[in-house]
């Protein structure tokens, strides 16, 4: 589509020239996200205020123009790719931290602020905000809320849904709403805060968020445990999660990933290593010895080959180097790999890993797994070249079976990456028709004309 | 209303005689809850299975008969009083614990099981479910979820919204839905789990819930700190909440409440006591000394008259005796007192208490405050006799000003009791018209005919 002249004129009235792009070449970049998918927007607006967003959304309603809100485009599912063109709302210039209130453990910020900036503002007062995606330095708060993005710390401290008090937002109809409270308890009205979090910008555009802060623990220890195979490691995960000391990170790497690291980096690992856990425990300094001891005892299941606690910051970095060697190694082997982030209950991780091995063999695809074991959130990497039609077809067939396996193990298709456009055809494998119909009805209440990020999050008939 | 003959016949087909009441005298009791409000139901059904509820809701849709789901009636807001008669669905016979899965830290149960039974089943495996309302021995899981009921532990461990993974439910239209996941992460589809939690049975009837369990801490210490006045105590609360050791209970009692205890019980308190904090700290035994030390240091603000840690179980009981003496004392003075459960950000507690004192003087009403200070959740007790028209009028005027004060302090009208029918006229003080309209739209999607618990939770035009 291209925008009607009256709409272009109205945009130019609403926004100063430096906050609006309408030339195709200028707009091009804002058609991408980190899924590498692309569709060109017709215009890109950079609002700086809530009221501008209200006006922009109402204008789009008047002209029936789709609106795609976005942050910095670090998402991996194409959720911010403007499939139908129209207006992209880039929220990157709404990047103010409005209030840091340590007495009340809260921070209020606009959506365009980066996760890192939130952490820095909180840290000045001895606090942090738990969600910690790998892209923290670049990704925005609005994106974190749109996807319910988590990271390693979620195992102890939860996701954005557990760490957000309230929102200010603009619905798809252009109405200003406020959700939630400024307190850690509140039961007046329905919980629209959590409904909007994770809805991938399909219900409302968040213009302000009140975040719940957590005091920074005084100390942290890092452990690495190596296992003969993934089954042993998964039993250790279940044992660790069944005792009272909850680690603040419980990451795992499977045997194929260890092979990968061994081939492509100098990180040292025992020869028989079939799986590896990276564990972090935080808390008050005096309690850490005991806490680490409890975790070490739980980690020491049959098949545990070695377990060690880093004694210095250098050792911590050496331990994490193993984990960090993985992504470059995977990119070397398969630059366009498929990375899914399925979740299963912790005790089903061994069955998942076994099943994935079988599927990899059957479809002749190398599958490498790592991820947030404490949440059962496994990053499943299919090392294929999607530009090779045979491999692409094999991957498609394999992916369908991966998702069926995950669901048969009481799991879910995504733990933190979301649906966007790349997974939407699989959603109805997980969510039944009646529940999906209800979600579509809710979408309709927020966005009667279906203009807000159409074709995302929910399957086919969604808009 | 009275039920049409074909509906009564259909009910008798759907349910065995022992699971159905239709005689007015038999039904009477099921028209009450702990608000002491009453309206007589036309029939009471005691379903035992999800599919029976589907059939009952569809039958009510067919005959346009209101449905009021209820647990054990311990709610205080009239949320289960069947204002328009019709069918009461008493879920007390759906009381099975379906699965306890310690490896995955989850428990699946039906709504009629008591909170206590959930705790006992979890405790067998070393776990607990954090929500702990005072009525735990009698109140049901379904009620806890309907109100998002919390209790003292919420300050550290959160409310049902932070401790529930997924639900099975029947919408007002009679559709079976499943929400959420069996894992601690999941971002597929919209978050209907939290939307239904706290919706007071106005959106859907919960028939099964997957609860997130937490490992029981190995040890706990109880502290009591006494302050010259409420301002000093509130500063202590803010200081305690700003350091890393989060107490598992942080309760307070104001000066008027202390006077009350002194007059009506033998609990010992220093003469100059203007406010009191009861604090509990849990964790691993080795860490407790340090943790208690941190909390004691934070609690020791200007105006702290004394602070002590209970050295034995008897001492713990002695400390809690003070807190527990309060309710009987209040009941002695004002059997029909009004008890609100407002919330303000922690640092605004002193302003709230000061403002309440002024309001009490202006309206000639004794106001006694206690509650969950760590969450800013204050139980405001207006000691009046509602049967005295002058006092009732004063209370009404005072209550309106209490709520305005709370909102001016960035607070919310209810932290855990909910809205029910008694607070619904005040909801629009807190939630703006556009947001309320959206909530009503969502209600309509779940319950197109407006039959599910009508006239509750949302104000006037809600159904």
Automatic annotation (TrEMBL), chains A, B:
This is Dimethylmenaquinone methyltransferase. The lineage of its organism: Bacteria, Pseudomonadati, Pseudomonadota, Gammaproteobacteria, Chromatiales. InterPro entries: FAD-bd_oxidored_4_C (IPR004113), FAD-bd_PCMH (IPR016166), FAD-bd_PCMH-like_sf (IPR036318), FAD-bd_PCMH_sub1 (IPR016167), FAD-bd_PCMH_sub2 (IPR016169), FAD-linked_Oxase-like_C (IPR016164), FAD-linked_OxidoTrans_Type4 (IPR051914), Oxid_FAD_bind_N (IPR006094). GO terms for biological process: methylation. Residues 37-216 form the FAD-binding PCMH-type domain. GO terms for molecular function: FAD binding; methyltransferase activity; oxidoreductase activity. Its cofactor is FAD. Pfam families: FAD-oxidase_C (PF02913), FAD_binding_4 (PF01565). It comes from the Bacteria. Belongs to the FAD-binding oxidoreductase/transferase type 4 family. Keywords: FAD, Flavoprotein, Methyltransferase, Oxidoreductase, Transferase. It comes from Acidihalobacter aeolianus.
